[in-house]
Amino acid sequence: MMTLLPIYVLGVLIVLFAGRLVVQAARGGKAKPVVTVEDYAAAREEVDELLVATAAIERVFAKEDVQFVSETCPVVVQQLFRQERGKLAIEWIRLSQRRLAHLMDLHLKLASYTFEPCARLEIGLAVRYWSFLVASHFILLLLRLRGPVETAAIVHYLVRVPGNLCGVFAPRLKNIDLVRLRSNVDLVQ
Amino acid sequence: MGANVVWLSAIVLEAVVLCRGIIASLTRRYPFFYIYLACILATELVRFYCYEFAPKYYQGFFWNTELLTIAASYIVILEIFRSSFKHHPGMGTLVQRVLLTVFVLVISYAATDLLHGGLRSLPRAIAELGRDLRYAEGAVLLLLLWFFGRHRIALGRNLLGLVAGYSFWIGFNVMNLALFFVRGNEFSTGLRKLLPVTYVVTLSIWCVTLWSAHPEPERPALEVLDHEYQTLATRTRLLLARASTRLARTVRP
What we know:
heterodimer; A: mainly alpha; 8 helices; extended; B: mainly alpha; 10 helices; globular
């Protein structure tokens, strides 16, 4: 029975993918049928705009304002402040996801019309896009659970730990004498 | 009696789809599909005749013709591929390579499986070969569907109906065949009844969506893009990289 499991999955996936195709076609019927280079350029500009305007969003994740509010304001105001910041951060990440999804959508449509699409490049792009999606969903989850400031601290920690470990291990690895290590291994054996 | 009603309604629906195809000139647009449908209709009529007038030969006849119809159904895959990638020559070449690789892999696996199992009886061997051909077809169809979804390939109402109906039929057929070959299920009447019903549903989908000819999606005038895939991919890659870096920088001030 277990050996037949991939076959059932195959059958179910065929039906699901066909259903998705019908839904996509039903939704796409309302949209513009033909994608142009101008649409792609406009989508790129939208993403660019989002990337440029992040100075204010960086402030949402910064500690300074939270410290100021927690030192000077009552608890109710602090809570309100955190809630508003959390909402803003979530909205910004969702907007980034939407705009990048739109860009990828247009890219895929345009790429399908070209004469020489490259499978390797497409796989690379897909991996990059999925990495972005995974990272952004992880951050969204953290934002919902802990709020923007704690999320920044966790991400900072997660990024810093491997760097610190590398910093600790690199000089140690330099000092290892491979000849001595080999002779010690031989002795143990 | 119930089984006969389903069977007869399938024959009638096949005839209707075929007639509408001829009237609406869809036979010229999708010739392979209508050849397949004509083959199926002829087979069904002969099967029905055999079932009514020579029932003791029916089982052997069924499995032999089943193998033939499964082999013939590959031309529907060919039709879907040919019609859907008409305006996407580059993507078509890419997909063709992937599909051929998957097909060769699945068929090789099925052939070794068949040889390893040994030829106990001819009907059983034919049935197993038919099943493996269907699995291979299912794998190829799944890949095609994935490509359509990923690259948002516009299919048009007629082709979409053809693909949706065919996928529904193949998907349920694959699941049904898998269940059918589980020990103890060989004589399951429930499974035997389920498949004709799904086939009638498929024919109904085809009947509705292939009733009249709808315009096909046109190829947009994108001459500038034809040789600019590298530029397009590089631009998208750079933007994705910038977005990822910006996300990391923003969240980690």
